[in-house]
Amino acid sequence: MLLLQPRVKLERRWAVLIMITAVEMMMPEGVKEGEIDFDDVICTVTPEKKLSIDLAQGFWIILKTFVDGGCRKLLVNMENVSFLDSAGIGTLINIMKLIRHRGGDLALTGVAQDLIQILDMVNFRKFIKVFDTVDQAVKFFSDMQLK
Fold it and tell me: Are 21 and 61 in contact (CB under 8 A)?
């Protein structure tokens, strides 16, 4: 399994630059476009500090760029996120719908306990997998049969 882990900082004014950076980071050096078998790739995004209404659009652009680029296994590492609002939750739900429509799946890891409580209030974990560790998420994706 190849684990792509771009480190991007979400800022509203930099959404287009972030999108371009995310696309460039998806292509390992020496690999031509169309040569990556995304069945063996887990795309990982690690947002910083918060997923809120002011950052949701930029975050959506990053995630959608991965999915549009062929990623079908998307891991959002929430280890640095300390604030999550309805816009952030909505973005995660919408990208989950998109990636599942394309035969893939989305998982979260490293979610703080206070954010777990928020997610549980809206039954989030009934339809999106949340793992304690990256290793657990990688095993889930490794065992996953793509459509």
Answer: no
